[in-house]
């Protein structure tokens, strides 16, 4: 694993966490959010600051390993393609927080979560295809994003007639 790649990947993932967190931290305690009806299976608020750092760390490490392996084996175009897919994924990731918490658009947030899940599945597919079992840990990320898509969609459904 190259320090340069790890630094770039960790910086991009860290920036995503900061940008998404800026929308979430202020608005998670807002009157708008408090009024929303939420499904019974929604995790308690203390779960999210535990899960997301673990997923972000996993994403940065697996992505670094994948990008470096592709570059080391002469697959420069595949490394650039993975990096671009990662960039899109991170935009969708941070974008969900802004759409949901800042713009108060649960329907659009559900669509964004669906796109994020598809993007996360694509990253995992690429990592596993490139690194085999070393890419496997990334599967936790699309699994969580799929859960977030179901949760976002259910919140939208519960509140769409309000």
Automatic annotation (TrEMBL):
tRNA processing listed as a keyword: no
Protein's UniProt name: Tryptophan-rich sensory protein
Keywords on record: Membrane, Transmembrane, Transmembrane helix
Keyword Transmembrane helix belongs to the record: yes
Pfam families tied to this protein: TspO_MBR
Compartments (UniProt record): Membrane
Taxonomic superkingdom: Bacteria
Membrane protein topology class: Multi-pass membrane protein
Family: Belongs to the TspO/BZRP family.
Lineage: Bacteria, Bacillati, Actinomycetota, Actinomycetes, Mycobacteriales
GO cellular component terms given for this protein: membrane
Transmembrane stretches, start-end: 140-158
Coiled-coil regions, chain positions: none
PANTHER family linked to this entry: PERIPHERAL-TYPE BENZODIAZEPINE RECEPTOR, TRANSLOCATOR PROTEIN
Source organism (scientific name): Mycolicibacterium chitae (Mycobacterium chitae)
UniProt record, GO biological process: tetrapyrrole metabolic process
């Amino acid at each position: 694993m190259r320090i340069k790649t790890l630094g770039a990947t960790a910086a991009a993932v860290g920036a995503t966490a900061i940008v998404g967190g800026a929308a979430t931290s202020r608005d998670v305690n807002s009157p708008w959010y408090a009024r929303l009806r939420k499904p019974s299976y929604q995790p308690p608020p203390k779960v999210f600051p535990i899960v997301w750092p673990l997923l972000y760390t996993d994403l940065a490490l697996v992505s670094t390993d994948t990008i470096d392996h592709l570059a080391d084996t002469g697959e420069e175009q595949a490394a650039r393609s993975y990096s671009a897919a990662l960039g899109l994924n991170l935009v969708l990731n941070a974008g969900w927080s802004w759409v949901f918490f800042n713009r108060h658009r649960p329907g659009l947030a559900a669509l964004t979560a669906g796109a994020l899940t598809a993007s996360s599945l694509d990253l995992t597919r690429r990592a596993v295809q490139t690194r085999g079992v070393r890419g496997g840990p990334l599967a936790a990320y699309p699994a969580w994003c799929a859960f977030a898509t179901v949760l976002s969609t259910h919140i939208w459904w519960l509140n769409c007639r309000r």
